[in-house]
Amino acid sequence: MKILVCISHVPDTTSKINFINGDTEFDTNGVQFVINPNDEFGLTRAIWFQEQQGAHVTVANVGGADAEPTLRKALAIGANEAIRVDANPTDGYFVAIQLADVIKNGGYDLVIAGKESLDYNGGMVPGMIAGILGINFLNSCIDIKVEGTSVKAIREIDGGKETVATALPLIIGGQKGLVEEKDLRIPNMRGIMTARTKVLTIVAPIAAVAETKAVKFEKPAPKSAVKLFAADDLDGLVNALHNEAKVI
């Protein structure tokens, strides 16, 4: 089984976020980047298929050379090879077009993508890829088992879970539950050294036009100061909740 894991290169949640050029562009200066968490759950599950069923695991990213350390980390975790489409990931449609081309040329059986990236939370790329290629798609997956070409997956839905039977080829939008956080792999020294010798292929992007653009970014409003009330000032508390906070 050939598995492709789509990897997004996203800011660490501890990084301070700023915008430049009139708040139209994300400022990457001083920002630490990591593997998108939803993608990391998917990668760990793919490595399980590699160890248990002999799957060949490739990771792919659409981005510049700055994304290569993230791909090298994926290789150190256990992926067999990596592909970087050398292009600026301008929007979800552009990224989906590029990854769909990689998938078509690679003949992958199972494509694992995170259901959304941590930075823009668009949640659109896996479904777009499936639409472009005309293959089965399951989103919000929290478990997947493959026997031959038959697949049984569990996905999270409002108020519960849904078990689905389908077949390869398949693309899933994965999340926490594919593996638990305690099962995520940390690259060891052997993995880091081995990753240096693994193939990282850089491919040129195919022609595609971004269908959207960022007009402006805006940070959430800062939290207002806390107002304290004496324990016996119930009238003041009720008045503030009713007239100021407007929650009662």
Describe this structure in words.
The protein is of the alpha/beta class and 248 residues long. Helices cover 27% and strands 29% of the residues. The chain contains 6 helices and 13 strands. The strands form 3 sheets. Strands 11-10-9-12-8-1-6-7-13 form a 9-stranded mixed beta sheet, sandwiched between helices. A two-stranded antiparallel sheet has the order 2-5. The longest helix has 17 residues, at 37-53. It is globular, with a radius of gyration of 22 Å. The chain starts with a strand and ends in a 5-residue tail after the last helix.
Per-chain topology:
Layout: E1 2-6, E2 9-11, E3 19-20, E4 25-26, E5 33-35, H1 37-53, E6 56-63, H2 68-77, E7 81-86, H3 92-106, E8 110-114, H4 125-133, E9 136-147, E10 150-157, E11 160-167, E12 170-174, H5 189-195, E13 200-203, H6 234-243
Parallel strand pairs: 1-6, 1-8, 6-7, 7-13, 8-12, 9-12
Antiparallel strand pairs: 2-5, 3-4, 9-10, 10-11
Helix pairs in contact: 2-5, 3-4
Helix count, per DSSP? 6
Average pLDDT score: 93
CA radius of gyration is: 22 Å
Q: State the shape.
A: globular
Largest sheet: number of strands, sense, barrel closure: 9 strands, mixed
Query: In percent, how helical is the residue content?
Result: 25-40%
Helix/strand-derived class? alpha/beta
Separation, N- and C-terminal Cα atoms: 57 Å
Uncertain spans: none
Number of strands: 13
Give the neighbour order of strands across the main sheet.
Answer: 11-10-9-12-8-1-6-7-13
Strand content: 25-35%
Order of helices and strands: EEEEEHEHEHEHEEEEHEH
